[in-house]
Amino acid sequence: MRIRTTAAVAAMSSLALLTGCGAADMTKQASPFANAQGSRTVTLSVQSWVGAQSNVAVAQYILEHELGYRVDTVQVDEVPAWDALSQGRVDALLEDWGHPEQEQRYVKDKKTIAPGGELGVTGHIGWFVPTYFAEKHPDVTDWKNLDKYADQFRTPESGSKGQLMDGSPSYVTNDKALVKNLKLDYQVVFAGSEAAQITQMKQFAKEKKPFLTYWYTPQWLFEKVPMTEVKLPPYKEGCDADPEKVACAYPHTPLQKYLNADFAEKGGKAAAFLKKFKWTTEDQNEVSLMIADKKMTPEDAAKKWVDSHKSTWKKWLS
Amino acid sequence: MTEIPTLEPPTEQTMDSSTPVFSVEGLWKVFGPKAERVPADPELTALDPAELRARTGCTAAVRDVGFDVRKGEVFVVMGLSGSGKSTLVRCLTRLIEPTAGTIAIDGEDVRAMDRSRLRELRRHRAAMVFQHFGLLPHRTVIDNVAYGLEIQGMGKAERRERAAEVVAKVGLDGMEHRRPGQLSGGQQQRVGLARALAVDPEVLLFDEPFSALDPMIRRDMQEEVVRLHHEEGRTMVFITHDLQEALKLGDRIALMRGGRIVQLGTPEEIVGSPADDYVREFVRDVPREQVLTVRTAMRRPSADQDGSGPAVRPDATVSEAIEAVARAGAPARVMDKGRCVGVVDSDTLLGVVAGTEQTAPPGTVQPEEAV
Amino acid sequence: MATITASPPRVGLPALLKHRAVHKLLLLALAAAILVPLANARWASGTWPSALTVDFSEPLAKASDWIIDNRDSHPLFLYFFGHVSNVVVIAVRAVYLTLLAIGWAGVTALGALVAWRVAGVRLALGTAAAFLACGLLGMWVPTMQTLALMVAAVLASVVVGALLGLAAGLSDRMDRLLRPVLDTMQVLPAFAYLLPVVLVFGIGVPAAVLATVIYAAPPMARLTSLGLRGADKEVLEAVESLGSTARQRLLTARIPLARKELLLGLNQTIMMALSMAVIAAVIGAGGLGDRVYQALASVDVGAALAAGIPIVLLAVVLDRVTCAAGEKIGAEPEPHGGRGWLIALAGVVAVAVAGRLAGRLDWPDSWVVAIAEPVNRAVDWMTAHLYSGVPVIGGTADWAGHFTTWVLDPMRDGLQALPWWSVLLIVAALAWVIGTWRTALTAVLAMAAIGVLGVWKPSLDTLSQVLAAVAVTLVVGFATGVAAARSDRLERALRPVLDVFQTMPQFVYLIPVVALFGVGRAPAVAAAIVYALPAVVRITTQGLRQVDPAAMEASGSLGATSWQQLRQVQLPLARRALLLAVNQGLVLVLAVVVIGGLVGGGALGYDVVFGLAQGDLATGLVAGAAIVCLGLMLDRVTQPTERRAKKGA
């Protein structure tokens, strides 16, 4: 018993010694892997979709080769990324699809996250069918007619209903509520990841089979598999406020960048650069296509883009 | 047996042979719930083990045992497994806490000792050798032997030096840096013995030390103990279930059965005059001629025999006398301090071997002669 | 026949057992006959009645919000969790910076020389090769990050585990208190531990390290306690008889006597920590796991493999070196052990300084072999040619599709169509017949808790995947195990394979199955099968081999064929081992099936991932709790009356 108490006391006192006896705010801790070996490190969060990878790849390439930073990337999904950003474990989030709740909490209340301006790309989520199918059945592009085609969209996973394919669990989606509230004869099936979803879509496209999927623009896959959007009840400001009662389309969102507040202030050239980083949908798709379809490494793809678009990125450094 | 345990502090007493090293009286060890009520209740103490168990759920491993261990003697406690002998020896240094009774070492009450005094007793006054050796497998031979000294807080160099001497004494030179796992059983027990000797205890306690060994090695080890005893004259308490071993080593033997001592006496008394049928059955196959002395077998000398025939000492064994008688072809005289105290002839000697000779009842031999 | 029926005393033990089982079942049937109509009338049958569910998402979401809002202000966080988190960050950072400061050459030299001192030249070469391979694959920095995290987590686990083990080893009360908790913790899937720590610490390294500690400390605690309790009684008595104090006894005898168990505990702790440190990538652990996670998210098999190989190499090296250290115990100590260590240390310092002077601390970029591309090309080729439409045998995707359509779907639909009370009854019956009423009660309560949590359907989905995987695992595992038990050659050939497979972290198994079967439930099941198979084969082989040779000889002498021997002697006598194999199979399969959420396995595992990805901890925590309940239920249902000694991990 005595030994145990001694050990406990020793552990507690060493803990106190190590940390100092005062308060320790764990929301102000950097990643233990940051800024190693005296080099300046920027930690960027990567989301799992390729567009986000393209942003990060180009930013990383310029930070490393033009500004002399060391860049760590961490795979964090959007919502946790907000938390990580607030805690300083991540310095920047380059593509956010709109999280008003988080924005309220971190940007307005706590002021631990600073807005980093627009990315220059406008995102839009919707339901899509392949164009080859829409051409044959033009009325499928209105949600009211979807039930008519439920039979054709059936798969083993969806059972007796039509399949509405969703992707990664991290994506912004109201699909389950939509299917319920629009009283559609469909089953939402999660592919589990974007890559899985793309594989499936390509497979379907190869065999010219019909499918209905959750998808978004900008997305490089449109170049490979042309798709047409299904019109949902039109979006009105606030119609998606209650996730249980949503019955309208997704909005068009100008994608935003966010920086950790401290980093935004003291991040020097890196922070200034990331604030100015702004490109177009075409730029992003160009890089994405190289990564996803031509199977280039993100670094090579970024290099190729940077080499051929000097005028674009020179402005970010001024 | 009849001695009253010394209750005064031993300070004024000189340690002559009459002061027992261990003095045990009315010792009980009862296992089970509320064990302490058993020795106190005469009604319960009268019960046999099965009844006791049924009535109280308790088992009495040691029941009302008393004896003295004299300085310099080898005191053997013998009994079959389950007779309580191992429990008894553990009670002596309170490795097992006795339930009732008194134990004194050099007159000092062991049961009244506090923790530190008890540790002192275990560190310096009584060391034990165990049946399965109880060696620390992660230490070398020398560090095992020095372990007792280390416990006492002795410095490394000094204790190693002391340990090396003892290692040599038990015949393990050259093996100091082996691990116990690399030694044979006999060698391991030598390490166990050396570990006990290293602390230079007043008493050595042996708990069936050789029963796990092969017969040949067992004999070697027994001789080792005899040799050590001759050389150092250390007091020993020796637990065994082997009658041969008990007779060979013991100056006196306490024979235990069911937690009680059924007979306590010299080997000769045990073999020569068993106290009851159990003991008689026990010693039946013992070669009596090697245990009994001519003193038991002799008859009064008639006048004419005075001066003739070979002479034998009274404590010579019968088998020695047989050899003398056979060689001379005549009865032998038993000579004590130049005086003929008796005569043995082939008839009396044969009677001993056959067991038909009615030996003198116990008590006729004075205790001091048996030492 | 008449004589047999007329002589009840001749009923043998198995018949008696059956008898008892029948009794239990009758009793259960009676209870069911009374309760089921009641339950039916009240709540209707079919899926779990919504009247009996409690919605935890509201309070959980509130709790989660409260924590996020108060993390930088509440004293509990400022003065306790904040410090914990701080210490973790400081420790990991210190190790990481040290590793980077010694440079790649220094770290390789350090690893190799430690392996040399502890385990000999061969393992030293293996260790060096492993480290160099990590560098060649371009994974040097992630490897160091994982290593830094591991070092901190293992040290903490060992300290925590050893202290708990000491408490349990020395005090009977603590032992009674801790043992069931530790036993249960060992059967729970790693995935379930992630969410509670994220709730408190948020995503990041501190949460990852703490989850790792929680997962990896129990084996250390159990084995410490086991070692202390298993110490040779006579040695302890001998030590006491020499007048030692309690402290001396502990330090000079009890702990050294338990060193084999302590080292085994260290080995298991390291292996479990590695496994968890990789899975913890999901909550921001960084390092190799993060690379695998990123690659899996984009089904980039090549990149996943490049990060997966270093994990496997680390696992094998760490396992072999700690095992060798354990085996060395009790051998003759080397005469100049101290000098050897000195040489080793000098060597490391020399290499590190040389690396520093040469300015070559970072792994040179030009030395990286990019395997991702060729691997992906191979996978593409496979997808194009083997995936589907292969004549006669069909492609791998076809298999996966058929497995989903013909096995997984019917099982899931069947389970979900069962009335809820009948599921509880089946659980109760199985658990009671195999174990005791206690295990049955725990199992039923765990199952009921799943219903109350409101995740009945996804849990049954997960359960259907587990059952399908276990069925395949057992068929293949028993067959292989029987074959290995009958042929020494096969066993010898299998042993190294099993060794390697058993040391690999769960995460790694997801990589090849995604390449082969695409995404969905089938690959999750396949990964689970591959992960659980080694343990099942090993336990089966051991169980069959431990059958009393006298019984085998006797039956052989009576002229039994080897098939008869197997059926009538070996299998019945090895019943315990076989049951243990089933139990282990279930526990291991569940662990991987839930990770399968990352590759489209859906159900509970997906909910956890979803919870983490959306910051919707309420969903994640409920799913995590359901996983715990499912694990508990599966363990208890197959638990033999006595508790097994240790996990076959």
UniProtKB/TrEMBL annotation, chain A:
Among the GO molecular function terms of this UniProt record, one is: transmembrane transporter activity
May I have one GO cellular component term?
ATP-binding cassette (ABC) transporter complex
**Name of the protein in its database record:** Glycine/betaine ABC transporter substrate-binding protein
| Annotated ranges, domain ABC-type glycine betaine transport system substrate-binding | 41-307
Q: Name any one Pfam family assigned in the record.
A: OpuAC
Q: Which domain of life is it from?
A: Bacteria
Under the heading SUPFAM superfamilies, the entry gives:
Periplasmic binding protein-like II
* Keywords annotated in UniProt: Signal
> Residues of the signal sequence?
1-23
Which InterPro entries does the annotation name? ABC_Gly_betaine_transp_sub-bd (IPR007210)
Automatic annotation (TrEMBL), chain C:
Family annotation (InterPro entries): MetI-like (IPR000515), MetI-like_sf (IPR035906)
Q: Where are the transmembrane segments?
A: 94-116, 123-141, 147-170, 191-217, 269-288, 295-318, 338-358, 417-434, 440-456, 468-487, 507-533, 577-605, 617-634
One GO-annotated biological process of the protein = choline transport
Supply the alphabetized keyword list: Cell membrane, Membrane, Transmembrane, Transmembrane helix, Transport
Any Pfam family hit? BPD_transp_1
Q: Which Gene3D superfamilies match?
A: MetI-like (1.10.3720.10)
Give all residue intervals belonging to the ABC transmembrane type-1 domain.
Answer: 143-322, 459-638
| Compartmental location | Cell membrane; Membrane
Q: What is this protein called?
A: Glycine/betaine ABC transporter permease
Instruction: Supply the source organism for this entry.
Output: Streptomyces cahuitamycinicus
